[in-house]
UniProtKB/TrEMBL annotation:
Protein name from the UniProt record: Transcriptional regulator
Pfam family, one: MerR_1
GO MF terms held by the record: DNA binding; DNA-binding transcription factor activity
Keyword Glycosyltransferase: no
Sequence ranges assigned to domain HTH merR-type in this UniProt record: 12-80
Length: 108
């Protein structure tokens, strides 16, 4: 199995293309980055690079902002969601370990 991220998570899209895809201005996209709602990578020349997942996240953020949700509230919800996901993954890993131990399955 490859350690490469799926196509959806590869950071290859420039801010200009993201702006076209989302309808958001480049300034607004950079603002959401400042507010720690989106986390682009930087190229060797310092250009922001986004993934398709980032584009989806930006659309979700824009929709919430149109509904009147503040960026602080969006950030807090993102942190809660991330914490819940980490807890879920931890429980799954524990269960897998218990099942493996019960049935004598050795991991390679």
């Amino acid at each position: 199995m490859s350690n490469e991220p799926s196509y959806k998570n590869r950071k290859v899209i420039t801010i200009g293309i993201v702006s076209e895809l989302t309808g958001l201005t480049e300034r607004k996209i950079r603002y959401y980055e400042e507010r720690k709602l989106i986390f682009p990578e930087r190229s060797a020349k310092g250009n922001r690079k986004y993934s398709f997942s980032d584009v989806e996240q930006l659309i979700d953020i824009a929709n919430k902002r149109e509904e009147g949700v503040q960026t602080f509230e969006i950030r807090q919800q993102m942190l809660r969601d991330k914490r819940k996901e980490a807890e879920r993954e931890s429980r799954q890993q524990m269960l897998r370990g218990q099942i493996n131990a019960r049935f004598g399955i050795q991991r390679e």
